[in-house]
Amino acid sequence: VPAAKTMHLAVLALVAVALCARAVDIPAFEFPRYHFSRKGSFARQTLNREKECAQICPTAPRHVQDLAVLKCVRMCMSMPCYSRIYGFDELEEGEIDVRGKSFNGCVREELLEADRRKKTELT
Predict the structure, then answer these.
(1) Rounded to whole angstroms, how far apart are CA atoms 7 and 97?
(2) What is the mean pLDDT of the chain?
(3) What is the spatial distance between Cα 118 and Cα 123, in angstroms, rounded to a whole number?
(4) 45 vs 4: CA distance, rounded Å
(5) DSSP class of residue 74?
(6) CA dihedral angle for residue 27, residue 68, residue 76, residue 109, rounded to 10 degrees
(7) How confident is the model at residue 84 (pLDDT cuts 50, 70, 90)?
(8) Nearest 5 degrees, angle CA 90-CA 71-CA 84?
(9) What is the pLDDT of residue 80?
(10) Which of 53, 63, 94, 115 has its Cβ near the most Cβ atoms within 10 Å?
(11) What values do phi and psi take at 83, rounded to 5?
(12) How buried is 77 (Cβ within 10 angstroms: 0-12 exposed, 13-18 middle, 19+ buried)?
């Protein structure tokens, strides 16, 4: 019977923690959001630009390589998009980049807009 009582108390404690977590108002991380899908010609152009920039960016010492190279690649791809997505809150070492898809979507939008301008100039 003591094991059942302990289990009951543990379940009650978990429920209490869950209810308290809901009561605390944790603000969501906000950043500009852009749609990006890996399908389509502009998505391919975005990914090709990323590959080109990855070849241009120098490698850094192993312990900072991931973040330094990622920042270099993203800035190379589009400085305006980098400023919009990361300018107010730079990526930090070990941070999971939840903004990467929005960044690629921003670059895709730039490519679409450039294509529209080009077609308008031709007509």
Answers:
(1) 39
(2) 78
(3) 9
(4) 61
(5) H
(6) -20
(7) very high
(8) 55
(9) 95
(10) 53
(11) -65, -40
(12) buried
CA distance 108 to 114: 10
Q: Which residues contact 91 (CB under 8 A, 6 or more apart)?
A: 67, 70, 71, 97
Residues sharing a CB contact under 8 Å with residue 89, sequence separation 6 or more, in sequence order: 31
Query: Tokens standing for 112?
Result: 């679409």
Confirm whether pTM is higher than 0.70.
no
Q: Which residue has the tokens 């960044």?
A: 103
> CA angle 114-47-104, nearest 5°?
70
Amino acid identity, position 24: V
**Look-up of token digits 């690629």:** 104
For the beta carbon of residue 105, count every other beta carbon within 10 angstroms.
Answer: 22
Per DSSP, the residues of 28-43 read: PP--------S-SHHH
Map tokens 């009951």 to a residue.
8
Mean pLDDT of 41-48: 82
